[in-house]
Amino acid sequence: MITRAGKSEFGVRGEIFSVRLTSAPVAGAANTALLRLLAKQLGIARRQITIRSGAYTRDKELYIEGLQATDVAHAL
Q1: Residues 42/35, Cβ–Cβ less than 8 Å
Q2: Which of the chain's ends, N or C, has fewer CB atoms near its CB within 10 Å?
Q3: Angstrom distance (rounded) from CA 27 to CA 11
Q4: Residue 3 falls within a domain, yes or no?
Q5: Which helix (H) or strand (E) holds 35?
Q6: pLDDT band at residue 4, thresholds of 50, 70 and 90?
Q7: What is the CATH classification number for the domain harbouring 43?
Q8: Is residue 61 part of a domain?
Q9: In DSSP terms, which residues pair with 50 in a beta bridge?
């Protein structure tokens, strides 16, 4: 996850999804923006996405309830 970008967008680095966010990493604002952006892109409720690890780092592991990895890959 890259914060303070000019535009919020998704990308791919090998087998890892990359996300650029306009939000700053202050008081969880970037994490909230990440969850909102993903939920909107996937067409699901924000509460279906949780951060399993990496809440305070750039590298995160997410759990997305109700979708398979292939569904997420196609949507992004």
Answers
A1: no
A2: C
A3: 25
A4: no
A5: helix 29-42
A6: confident
A7: 3.30.1200.10
A8: yes
A9: 63
What is the tens place of the pLDDT at every residue in 16-35? 888 889 988 888 899 999 99
In a domain, 51, yes or no: yes
Question: Are 29 and 53 contacting, i.e. CB atoms less than 8 angstroms apart?
Answer: no
Show the domain range for 55. Answer: 9-75
**What are the tens digits of pLDDT across the range 23-69?**
888 888 999 999 999 999 999 999 999 999 999 998 899 999 988 88
Bridge partner residues of 51 (DSSP): 62
Q: What is the rounded (10 degree) CA torsion for 54, 27, 75, 12?
A: -60
The span from the CA of 28 to the CA of 67, in Å, is 25
- Amino acid 58 reads R
Length of the chain: 76
